[in-house]
Structure formats: structure tokens, C-alpha cells
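task queued by scheduler; priority normal; single chain, no ligands, no partner chains; default sampling; output format set to C-alpha cells
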Amino acid sequence: MELNHDDVLDVALSASLEAGKLLSSFSTKLAERPTFASDATWTKSSGRDLATEADVAAERAIVARLRKAFPDHAIEAEEEVVDDGARREGARWFLDPLDGTINFVHNLPVWCVSMALFVEGVPEVAVIHAPKLGETFHAIRGRGAYLNGQRIHVSPVTELSECVLATGFPYRRGELGNDNRGNFNDLFYDIRGIRRMGSAAIDLAYTAAGRLDGYWELHLKSHDVAAGALLVREAGGVVTDVDGGESWLDGVSILAAPEPIHRALLPRLQGPTSP
């Protein structure tokens, strides 16, 4: 498939910036009117799994841009749009219009737009745009990862004892096999620190930028990790599932880190199990 990566990136950046402005206007309403959150928010898989009018509006804006620019591309988004077809065939966008919805609803600035184009199952272009943080990350396969136009690289740390890691926990904790608490507890005393940002996309972007020394999580979705995984790889890191395999795009689990830290973490992490 012929693909002009620069054109694709231009569309993705423009769409993410448009969505970011829309989300920011909703965020302002949330800050000014606390009751707006209850009026414009609903639950999905559990009482912890939220969606808002902002999620849907941002997704529709991005999808409209992508349909116009790339009518032959499939789209798999979080809220409304999941086109037919296999994930590893043809050109397919993975889109999370608002990653970090709980942060968004609670007026915490750690949320973003996350989108990535895969072709035949290979990540080609990724954008993560965090409006409230003033940061836009992007990557093109084989051409590096960038933050606001500046090249970024994963952390040079080689020892777990020097690491600040990030992770997260599933909305349906208590219902799933392995809710990640065991992994958290196992690593707790052996690392410098641990962070829980509330946005998988930002965790991955921060790992790519060397702010975090690694990130793992279980029970995710493709749209959570598709863009961030390319950022980490293009920044010099390693991305697999927690067993060292390639099921990370299917959301089973993900482990992203510089190679020495990835190697050290692999035998320490346990993946999802049957409840």
C-alpha cells in the first residue's frame, strides 16, 4: 500500500489539535459548572468506567477528518466506530478521542487524544496530544519519536533500583483474573518509585520521553496502546506483552521500557489469568 507518511501525520496532527480544542472547551465547562459533569457523563462497563459527551464529540470530529482524507482506511475507535475487518489487514486507525476520562471529569490535566495508523498490523504513524499539558508527541516508523518537534529517547537507566515506573489497574477490578496488584506489590520495594497517571497513552508517551523508566499494565484495549507503543519503539525502547510476546495490540497486557529494564521486568510480571 502506497503511504505518504508526512501527509498522514499532517492529517493526524490537525485532527488531534481540533479534537483537543473541543475537549478543552468541555473541560472549561466542567471547571465552571460542577453539575455539568453529572449531566454530560455516563458509565460503561462499571461505575468507574466513564464516558462523556466530550469523548463522543471528539471522536466524531476526528472520524470525519479521517473519512475525508483516507476513505479507504478502517477505523477502530473507543466510543462509536469499529469498522469491519481484521486488525492486521489493510490500513486501520486506532483512536482514543479522550484517554484519561476520569482525570478529565475530575479536572486533572492528565488526559489526551491518542491516534495511530497501522498498515498490515504494523504501526506507521502515531500522535498523542495532551492539550492541558501543552504537549504533542508524534512518531513515524523508522524516523524517531518527537515531543513538540524535539527528538525524544527512552531513559538511559539500567537498574531497577533507579527506576520510576508507571502502571494502572482495570476498571473491573475484583471481577478479573489478576487485577495487577500482585505485580505492584512484587516491585514496590525494589524500585525508586511508581506512578499511576490514569492514562495509558500518556504513560507510554512519558516512557518514550525518558520521564518514566518503564510502564506495564493488564486488561487494556487496542486504542489505549496503539499510538504510545510506536512512540516507545521509535524512542529506542522495547514493547511486548508481559510474557514477551506480541499480543499487546489486543490489549491483553503491555510492557514498554528501555531494553535493560524490559529484560529485568519480564520475569517479574504476571499476566491476566482466568477469574
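post-processing summary
- The first helix runs from residue 5 to 32.
- Residues 42-49 have pLDDT under 50 and may be disordered.
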